[in-house]
Amino acid sequence: MTITHHVHVYAVVRIKLAVTAADHFDAMKRADSIMTESSYPVRLVLGGPQVLDAEPADEISGYLVDETDDPQFEKSRFYGCDHKPCDLAQPGESPAQGEGEGEGRSVG
What pLDDT digit, counting tens, does each position of 18-35 carry? Predict the structure, then answer.
C-alpha cells in the first residue's frame, strides 16, 4: 500500500539585492536588514499541483558580493553566513572565474 507523503525541501535560492554601502561588510549588513524585514522581498509562486506550500527558510548559507563598477568581477568575493571571507578562487583569480561560478551574473 502507498500513502501520500509531505516532503519539505529546503532549497537555497540566490537573491540579488542592490545596496549602497561603504564596503563588502556594510553591503552584507544592509542586505541582511532587507532580508529580515517583516515583508520578505521575494514572492514564491507555486508551480504545480504537487506543490502545496512555499515560504522562505530562516537561513542564509552565504554571500557573493559584487561591486557595480567592476564588470570583470575582479573585486567580487564569497563570504560565509558569518560574513567571514571564504575565497574559493586561486590566488590572483576572481571568484567569478572559477569553474561554474558566476554564470548568469550581471552587474547591471
Answer: 999 999 999 999 999 988
Q: Please say whether the beta carbons of 54 and 44 come within 8 A.
A: yes
Q: Cα-atom radius of gyration of the chain, to the nearest Å? A: 17
C-alpha cell at 102: 558566476
The answer for residues whose C-beta is within 8 angstroms of residue 7's C-beta and 6 or more apart is none
Q: Which residue type sits at 7?
A: V
Give the amino acid at 88. L
User: How far from chain centre, in Å, is Cα 87?
Assistant: 15
Is pTM beyond 0.90? Reply is no
- Grid cell of 77 as nine digits: 568575493
